[in-house]
C-alpha cells in the first residue's frame, strides 16, 4: 500500500509505524519506491545476514548490525536522507525500554542525523531473542510492539492530536492473538528472568493487542478509522524465501490498487478524488 500511495502522489502529513512498520514509515517519507519495495520483497541486500548464516556467526536470526546501519553505510541499501529531511510531514516511531517498561517514541524533532534515525528504526524492530539490541543513550530498547498499543500504531497518531486515521493492518480481518502455551510461557520466563518489565510485556502482549484492535475497530465503526486488512498474509517476520517475499509483495500491490478507491473516498470524499500521480499534487493530506 505504501508504494501505491507514493505512485499516486498521496502524501499524508503524519505517518507512524511500529516494528517492521517503522521501516515502512521512513521509507514512505523518503519517497523511495525501490527501497520501500526491497525492504520487504528482496533478500539480495541481506544475503548472509539472516537465518542460519547469521545464527552460525552468533549474531542472531537477523544480523541487525549489517541489516540496518551496515547496509546504509556501505551503500548496499542506501537511504535518501536529503529527501526525508526535506519532507515536512510529521512521523512517529516507537520502541520499548527493557529496564523501565516505558514506551519510547521518536519523531521529527529527534531526527537530526541519519544514523540516529536508522538506530531507532532498528530499535523499534528488535525482536527479543531474534536480534541483538543496540543501546541508545545507554538504554536497551526492543520492538515497539511490546509497548503501548501492542503493535498497533493508532495511539501514536492520537497522541499527536489526530482524530481520524488510515490503519494498515498486517493480519486478516477477524485475526486475534492467542494466549501463549505453557511451554512458551516457560521459555519467556526463563529468557527474561532478569528483566521483569520485558517478561511482563511479552506475557501480556496477546491480550493487549486484542484489546487495542477491538478499540480501533470501534473507531472504524464510528467512521473515524479506515482499516485496510490484507486478504491473506502468506509470510511471517522470519520469512527469508525470495520467492515467497516477492509473491507476497505482488499480492499486496494488487490488493492496494483495488483498495485505493476506498482510501480516496475516506480521505477526499470520493472514490476517484485526490492526486493520481506523484507530479499532480504538491500538498500534504491531513485527515484528523
Question: Can you characterise this structure?
Answer:
By secondary structure, this protein is of the alpha/beta class. The protein has one domain (2-174, 225-268): Cytosolic phospholipase A2 catalytic domain, CATH 3.40.1090. It is built from eleven helices and six strands. Strands 1, 2, 3 and 4 form a four-stranded mixed beta sheet that branches. Helix 2 (20-29) runs antiparallel to helix 3. The chain is globular, with a radius of gyration of 19 Å. The chain starts with a helix and ends in a 20-residue tail after the last helix.
Helix percentage:
40-55%
Fold-level CATH name: Cytosolic phospholipase A2 catalytic domain
CATH superfamily: Cytosolic phospholipase A2 catalytic domain
**Annotation, overall tally of beta strands:** 6
Figure out the total of helices. 11
CATH architecture: 3-Layer(aba) Sandwich
Biggest beta-sheet profile: 4 strands, mixed
Distance between the termini: 20 Å
Q: What sequence of helices (H) and strands (E) makes up the elements?
A: HEHHHHHEEHEHEHHEH
Alpha-beta content class: alpha/beta
CA-based gyration radius:
19 Å
How many structural units, i.e. domains?
Answer: 1
Query: Kindly state the mean pLDDT as a whole number?
Result: 88
Strand content: 5-15%
How are the SSEs placed, and which strands pair?
Blueprint: H1 2-7, E1 14-18, H2 20-29, H3 33-41, H4 52-56, H5 64-73, H6 81-86, E2 90-97, E3 103-107, H7 114-124, E4 141-143, H8 154-159, E5 165-168, H9 182-191, H10 196-221, E6 225-228, H11 242-268
Parallel strand pairs: 1-2, 5-6
Antiparallel strand pairs: 2-3, 2-4
Helix pairs in contact: 2-3
